[in-house]
Design brief:
This protein is an alpha+beta fold. The longest helix has 21 residues. It has 2 domains: 84 residues, Glutaredoxin; 120 residues, Glutathione S-transferase Yfyf (Class Pi), Chain A, domain 2, CATH 1.20.1050. Helix content is 50%, strand content 10%.
Amino acid sequence: MQYKLLLGNQVYSGWSLSFGLVFRHFNIDFEHQVVPLYTNEFEQFRKQYFPARQLPALITDEDGDRQVIWDSLSIVEFLSDHHPKLEIWPSDPGMRAAARSLCAEMHSAFKALRSSMPVNLKRNYAAFQPNEEVRSDIQRICALWRWVRELFVSDGPYLFGDTLSAVDAFFAPVASRFRTYSIDLDEQSAAYSNLLLQHPATLEFIEAAQSESWRMEHNEFDLD
């Protein structure tokens, strides 16, 4: 099966970072294309790959039979179904259920954090001060990270042990936000966040983002 992963601007697209990480960490062969968000190219993407409306989107081809898979949860479930030996989800049923719950919450919640701290892999805002709602989101995320380690007695560097899984990839954009906006974290959360940012696939993604020339003004702030 051939995979084509359509990504949004790598500077600004957190979900694109997640799936760049998944594909590269698990050595799944794929090609990718960056589609600049909210441009004529983006509108053409919506027409060509209907019913997908947002990026990333996964285009599969098996003997000429093309399928369009959109939405981050659907993409990761598709990859897990087609590559069961890779353990994209934790193999233990209890851990797998917890990982899916975490991914689902990351996928649908934390609206204050998303709106006030958009992904921007080119900037660092030392003067950013989160409001009460954003602080609540940050506290919830760090509490979830601690909960996983306490519940499953995980001493590995990743949430569910020694190896990265889908849930870690889903939190990589959050880690990038914490660095961009200079968020103070507890020691354990900071170590985990830095681990995600130092993954070779994350570093490769960030390096590619640095070369992009597109600029989205609503993701840029005048902060020191």
